[in-house]
Specification:
Transcription Regulator spoIIAA, alpha/beta, 26% strand, five-stranded mixed sheet
């Protein structure tokens, strides 16, 4: 079976780095949620940012997208502050843009460097996400 995601922790940056690939099933969303929550428990992480590489990801089904939004709510309750995702695929970016509409703590970008710069700017600014101009 092909891997669907990887999750890594950078304690110096308080950053969870996620790589996603392919078309996900509902089981993949459950495995992803469990993987991140296990990481939070293992390292006793109370607050964190997330960088999501969607470069190998595909546009997801409506059912999977809705489930990922519910998973996102769990991450927010567990300390997720900001999330920057990136993909060169216009279709993936369009789907993510619809999903995160109204969520000022999340952004999608075409490349990693811009996503990383946004996260760093958010940290340095100390401003609430809604107060920072959209890149």
């Amino acid at each position: 079976m092909t891997w669907k995601f990887s999750v890594d922790w950078d304690p110096d940056q308080l950053l969870i780095m996620v790589r996603c690939q392919g078309l996900w099933t509902m089981q993949d969303t459950e495995d992803f949620e469990a993987g991140v929550l296990n990481l939070l428990d293992l390292y006793q992480i109370k607050r964190f940012d997330m960088m999501v590489d969607l470069g190998l990801g595909l546009t997801q089904t409506a059912e999977v997208a809705a489930r990922l939004m519910a998973v996102d709510e769990q991450f927010m309750k567990r300390g997720l502050r900001r999330r920057a995702a990136y993909s060169q695929s216009a279709m993936v970016r369009a789907q993510v843009t619809r999903l995160i509409s109204g969520k000022e703590e999340s952004r999608i970008f075409p490349e990693e460097e811009t996503a990383r710069q946004w996260l760093l700017a958010m940290r340095r600014s100390g401003v609430a996400p809604a107060e920072l101009a959209h890149p």
